[in-house]
Design a protein that fits this description.
The chain is mostly helical. It has two helices and no strands. The termini are far apart.
């Protein structure tokens, strides 16, 4: 019976950690869409905006013309 309690506590801990990770990632997405994506500085964390811009520049992207032609 003791091991059953430990397993339940471990499950709750893992769910809590997963939820925390989900909240952090969603907060980063909202921060990116609100500021660096629109070429604005983040008011209280300019270092975070700079890091997001560097990461965006490093990723491959499509030009506007590449994604709109249905014949390709």
């Amino acid at each position: 019976m003791v091991s059953h309690r430990l397993e339940g506590g471990t499950t709750v801990l893992l769910i809590g950690i997963a939820m925390l990770i989900i909240l952090v990632v969603s907060g980063l997405v909202v921060a990116y869409v609100a500021f660096p994506h629109r070429d604005k500085d983040m008011p209280h964390a300019p270092w975070l905006g700079d890091a997001m811009n560097k990461a965006t520049d490093a990723l491959p992207t499509l030009d506007e013309d590449e994604g709109t032609d249905p014949k390709r």
